[in-house]
Design goal:
This protein is α/β, with parallel strands linked by helices. It folds into three domains: 182 residues, Rossmann fold (3-Layer(aba) Sandwich); 204 residues, Rossmann fold (3-Layer(aba) Sandwich), CATH 3.40.50; 183 residues, no CATH class. Helices cover 32% and strands 25% of the residues. α6 links the parallel β10 and β11. The protein is globular and about 75 Å long. The model has no long low-confidence stretch (mean pLDDT 91). It binds xanthosine-5'-monophosphate.
Length: 599
């Protein structure tokens, strides 16, 4: 069933391993990520092997274990960063800590080699390394260098083994795709036959194998991922073997649960079971304000309710698997791969789910894909465009868009003054807001203050001030711009938790934002558009709403979306009419330093 030609990527722990696999698939060649200890039999079946980068040193005690036979199988090898150093180390060259550590861009000068066919003599590459190859193994030659790295590319044509100290898989490296293509297609001779249709067939085959005789109990949030997952499972196993459960937590968009059920039934997918569990969720979240605590409670309750439902169905774990529409970024952001750090616990990565995954109870057929790949798969499965192109919606729903607080304002007076000062230099007024939001900086999670700026809606200037503020103060990871009212004279942090009343308020504001977006026909330009409720009273009128439209490709990075003034005006005018809303703001922070969601 598998396509004949494949490239195997051995994962030594780089943040980019998965991106590498994706790049190879973009070349229309099937790729698979394996452990460096994968048996020779498995490696021999590949047209080529790529050794990923990794955070360790090849000569340290903590170096990653690998199958040493991989170098003598006759399969072409390309080592990247750590991978290159491993080649040099294993084949008796020398690797040591570099005098100058290289991070960021460098200019590469090509000396020779088939890896560089069709690329210019000099171009920019992206480096991130401390160690470097000091002496080449026998038979190897330098193929390219940078001012700080003599062996930026090395190789031995006879053995078909190559190494690059830089990262061709990241977009900051020019001609990176061309270099990978030269390796995969020219050097390995892989046929460019792979496409999403094949992936679909292969996945259907794998799902049938993995499920065996078992049925699948699918937790359906109703978002794009779980909907595509349901359609895929339905295609692989047939409706009779799938039981789809949609838990209405009370934190869905206005009328969303109803719409999801109807849309899916229209597709001919067997009845979707909807449970209204909102009472339980509001109960369990009473008095909770910490974002991670919220996420964990929601994740746990989801599972409890699902298990309860399974018990009602005389469920036996020997005959059922639990299905989830987890996609790749969910895993990496929760710190789910070898060396990645935890940014936030995605609901489908709650500890109890992780336990079930370890026991082999869970099936996640989309967990290798990025969002745009999931959408492509959805279209192939015949799902309507409107359903597949919907904005992503997080599993915990509006619960992580309703910021909560104990009402204790801990903002630092000195910081307040400094923030004001910097904003004034840029011609804006600024206030430190007494609320915190989650961010991601240097691959780590932050939980820091937001700043409000007031002044002219000029995106160029706002982008500059937002970057300046977040770069100047480690205590700030988010900047919002005041749309309405003209001026904030008084703001006060309120004690506020997850209640039906606040949820209804946010549902209303969210529905308005989505409606205007759709009416103006720009929904497809914006990748996602969270609307957030802030437990702060503005001018004694009511709580604040933050609009968070973003452009993104894979959710790993994002830019704030620069919506036209008339669209914003339209949204603001309607949102300000909601009872208990005192201000509307626009989030003007990129990811990083912020994340897309506030929690
Ligand atoms: P952040 O906020 O980390 O979000 O920039 C990246 C993307 O993931 C979505 N998201 C989630 N999706 N369960 C999900 O299914 C979750 O718990 C969750 N948290 C964040 C978020 O909406 C964005 O698209």
């Amino acid at each position: 069933m598998e396509p004949q030609d494949k490239i195997v990527i051995l994962d030594f722990g780089s943040q980019y391993t998965h991106l590498l696999a994706r790049r190879v698939r973009q070349l229309n060649v099937f790729s698979e990520i394996l452990s460096p200890t994968a048996p020779s039999e498995e490696l021999k079946a590949a047209k080529g092997i790529i050794l990923s980068g990794g955070p360790e040193s090849v000569y340290s005690d903590t170096a990653v274990a690998y199958n040493p036979e991989l170098f003598s199988l006759g399969v072409p090898i390309l080592g990247l960063c750590y991978g290159q150093q491993l080649i040099a180390h294993h084949l008796k060259g020398k690797v040591e800590p570099g005098k100058v550590k290289e991070y960021g861009t460098a200019t590469l000068s090509i000396l020779k080699g088939g890896l560089f066919k069709g690329v210019p003599k000099n171009f920019t590459v992206w480096m991130s390394h401390g160690d470097k190859v000091k002496k080449l193994p026998k038979g190897f030659a330098a193929f390219a260098s940078t001012p700080d790295c003599e062996f930026a590319a090395i190789g031995d044509d006879e053995k078909g083994i190559y190494g690059l100290q830089f990262h061709p898989e990241v977009t900051h490296t020019q001609f990176g795709m061309k270099i990978l293509e030269n390796f995969v297609v020219k050097i390995c001779g892989a046929m460019r036959e792979w496409n999403m249709e094949q992936y679909l067939n292969q996945k259907i085959h794998e799902i049938r194998e993995e499920a065996g005789d078992k049925n699948v109990f699918l937790l359906l949030s109703g978002g794009v991922d779980s909907t595509v997952c349901l359609a895929l499972l339905d295609r692989a196993l047939g409706s009779d073997r799938i039981h789809a459960l949609h838990v209405d937590t009370g934190f869905m968009r206005k009328s969303e649960s109803k719409i999801v059920k109807e849309e899916l039934e229209k597709l001919g997918i067997r009845e979707v079971n909807v449970i209204d569990a909102s009472e339980k969720f509001f109960g369990a979240l009473e008095g909770v304000f910490d974002p991670e605590e919220k996420r964990n409670i929601i994740g746990r309750l989801f599972v409890d309710i699902a298990l309860e439902e399974l018990n009602n169905m005389d469920f036996e774990i020997d005959t059922w698997l639990i299905g989830q529409g987890t996609i790749y970024p969910d895993t990496i952001e929760t710190g789910g791969t070898a060396h990645a750090k935890k940014i936030k616990t995605h609901h489908n990565r709650a500890p109890i789910i992780m336990e079930m995954i370890e026991k082999g109870w869970v099936i996640e057929p989309l967990n290798q894909l990025y969002k745009d790949e999931v959408r492509e798969l959805g279209r192939l499965l015949g799902l309507p465009q409107g359903l597949v192109d919907r904005h992503p919606f997080p599993g915990p729903g509006l619960a992580i868009r309703i910021l909560c607080s104990e009402g204790v304002d801990e903002t630092d007076e000195k910081l307040k003054k400094k923030v004001k000062g910097i904003a004034l230099e840029e011609g804006y007024r600024a206030k430190l807001l007494p609320v915190k939001a989650v961010g991601v900086q240097g691959d780590n999670r932050t939980y820091s203050n937001a700043v409000l700026v007031e002044g002219e809606l000029n995106y160029e200037r706002l982008e500059a001030i937002s970057t300046r503020i977040t770069n100047s103060f480690s205590e700030v990871n988010r900047v919002v711009f005041l749309l309405e009212p003209q001026k904030v004279k008084k703001l006060e942090l309120k004690k506020a938790y997850l209640t039906r009343e606040r949820t209804a308020k946010l549902q209303e504001a969210d529905a308005i934002a989505m409606r205007v977006l759709e009416q103006k026909g720009i929904g497809a330009n914006v990748w996602q558009f969270p609307v957030v409720l802030m437990p702060v009273d503005f001018n004694g009128v009511g709580e604040g709403i933050v609009l968070r439209p973003v452009y993104s490709k894979e959710a790993m990075t994002a830019k704030f979306a620069k919506l036209g003034p008339s669209i914003l005006e339209d949204m603001v005018a309607q949102i300000m009419k909601i009872d208990g809303i005192g201000a509307v703001m626009l989030d003007i922070t990129h990811k990083p330093p912020a994340t897309i969601e506030w929690e």
